[in-house]
User: What shape does this take?
Amino acid sequence: MRIDIVTLLPQLLESPFADSILKRAISKGLVEVHLHDLRQYGQGKHRKLDDYQFGGGAGLVMMAEPIFECIENLQKERQYDEIIYMTPDGDLFDQPTANHLSLQKNLLILCGHYKGIDQRVRDVLITKEISIGNYVLSGGELGAAVVSDAIIRLIPGVLNDESSALTDSFQDDLLAPPVYTRPANFRGHQVPPVLTSGNFKAIDDWRYEQALQRTQARRPSLLKNSDD
Ligand code: ADE
Assistant: This one.
């Protein structure tokens, strides 16, 4: 898979890909991540990228032309399965979206800033608009990092333990059950005895029951046929 990220602040996106699982995925050749500095497509001596909005109103709007030039340049090299715009008014990002995106070959993610981007970019170029939550960030970069992380960890071979992405919270519309490691008794707090019983059927049943209870308490809307 290849992810191209178009941004005003490429340096903000360098560290998420320079450590841990994402770094390993890149060095194993399972994913390529390319950052593109939109400033290079800015207009005039000052490489201008934004302008006042027609009709008046506070805040600058990112101009269509530099974004079109940047994305069209990238499209000359390859066809993108999705051209994603990170925006607080996009579809809320969730695990099914991450699963869908992890199966694609070429993704392009555009990070917005200021008051947003000229609507014509959204109308003509963008195929998917994603929000990572109902709050406003200073720009789309942190959202792009979140989306990329959620996608990349699903690519086969990225996680050491192949089964562990499948047992994540949300993968079966249930939150994950509690987990424990050694020691079995920590300052008088005992691990639930079933986990040390060696009875794997009982352990599976306990985990399922705990996942169900946690989902009911914390995300009842995930449960099918829920009244929520
Ligand atoms: N840009 C600004 N706020 C955002 C959000 N909540 N999600 C995605 N991109 C954003």
Summary: Strands lie at 2-7, 32-37, 50-52, 60-62, 82-92, 106-111, 128-131, 185-186, 189-190. The longest strand covers residues 82-92. The domain at 170-222 is CATH 1.10.1270.20 (Trp Operon Repressor; Chain A). The chain has a mean pLDDT of 95.
